[in-house]
Amino acid sequence: MRTLLVTGPGGSGRTTFAAATALAAARAGRRTLVLSADRTDTLGAVLGAPGADAHPGLTVRRLAPDTRFRDDLLAVQERAASALDLLGAERLDGEELTPLPGAEELALLRALRDAARESGRDGGHDTVIVDLPAAPRALAVLALPEQLRRYLRRLLPPERQAARALRPMLGRLAGVPLPAAWLYESAARLEDELAAVQRVIEAPGTTVQLVAEPGPAGADAVRTTTTGLALHGLRIDALIANRVLPDASTDTWLAGLAAQQHKTLDAWESAYGRVGRVPHLGRDPRGPDDLAVLGLPAPAAAPAPVAWPVTEAPAEEADHRYVWHIPLPGVARDELGLIRRGDELVVTAGPFRRIVTLPSALRRCTVAGAGLREGELRVRFAPDPGLWPRGN
Known about the structure:
Helix content is 40%, strand content 22%. The two termini are 44 Å apart. The protein has two domains: 2-65 and 99-293, Rossmann fold (3-Layer(aba) Sandwich), CATH 3.40.50; 310-383, Immunoglobulin-like (Sandwich). The longest helix has 21 residues, at 135-155. The chain is α/β, with parallel strands linked by helices. The protein contains twelve helices and 14 strands.
């Protein structure tokens, strides 16, 4: 399944790009699904018709998290009934529940997981395009499965389930109640769901397309967003410059804006390679005809995954033996932070932070230093004599 995650700065035209690309994919004969959690249905307005009417091969799903959120919370309340009764808590009715912040994002991730499961069946989709929120929020959504899985493993380690049969006896010996079996079962079920979503996000066919309007504000947003995406191992297969003005204009004001745009475009092409250019129509695109004028192609094949390789250091660099290469384009030296915590590395790049597990060979090493070179963080490791096998 080819999955395209569309994001960019707020107001950059992400939804227009998602709609135009989805329509191009459907017209190319691909069974296409486009997902959106926008409550205002901007996607439907851009397409100019309900999803089923925009094109025979296109399906639009605008997600409403209310029902699933309500069902999930009521189910948890039912499972914890004895504890709530003990505390004298008053039960919540389904009619009084409204979605909390973040419910839309969870609904979007679930829909992405479900689309992947459907792709191998009859009636499944070849291409899925996700209209994500604006870039900072979108990054938080895409990082959520990995983060929640880490929290679950820390709070309820899977190996503790091995003592399930001993819990009643241990509870009597300790004099305190131990977690009930349903808690571990719920955690295992949530782990499976999160792992399924993470597999889709990290799949070879999943990439990000970053949409921005060329200019100083767009340039700053693109630099920050590319750093955050790289830190989380998400691949950008295209940077799309939206609402590009024509080169020649007799209007001095428009000519000045066009010159500013082209300055940004030249910088983007120098830093990121080829940049897709979408013309400004002089109006907000509405309907299939306007979207076709934008000239966006169906999604191409996904580029090769970007690795974080571990290499051996040259013999003359005696202070370390291995180097871990972490691509972080656009980050400045003073925006970097690095902390070793057991078998994990806490990497901070600007406003973003990720906790990554060290490769097995590096877990027996100490951090000997780090440096930023050519858009790549290079972390140096030296074998720890207390952990490294003798003679190696």
